[in-house]
Amino acid sequence: MSETGADDRAVGVPDAFQRLWTPHRMVYIGGENKPADDSAEQCPFCLGGESDDEAALVVHRGEHAFVVLNLYPYSPGHLLVCPYRHVSDWTEVTDAERDETSRLTQTAMRTVRRVSAPHGFNLGMNQGAVAGAGIAAHLHAHVVPRWAGDANFLPVVGRTKAVPQLLGDTWRLLRSAWGDIDPRPGRGDDPSPDAT
To answer: How far is the C-alpha of 125 from the C-alpha of 109, rounded, in Å?
Structure first.
């Protein structure tokens, strides 16, 4: 027995299993970073929208919306596009918020393509906690890059997602490439197969 009373005799003993330790996920699983209520004062997107970009993982700031790395990404480069205003429903955004959120989503895709050449994307918004929104009180669009073969047995068998790049490294790559992307269709550096 260890000092904590736990039986740790098997720790470090070779066996047939490979282990991927992801203790940082316990913060998310335990809800430690979840806001105490739905107010703007508790909202991580409202707080992140006002703080230091690198510390808050903000990749780009627009006039009505900003782009931030997901703190618990499904894959490297998983971005969230959020209006600054604390609004929960897509039908409640202003025309300016809607238009800029859409433009930033396009630029996010172009930037991620340039930085890491994914084979595709999942795009979407989860409206309400029952629909899967982790932070339901503040609207955010997901931009999730995907690669052929990136979904393996770990999420199914081990309830673990392997993310092979640190958030700080991803932030630096995307932040430095963001300004080189022209948001107009057919312009800028867009290495997607359908780019002309």
So the answer is: 15
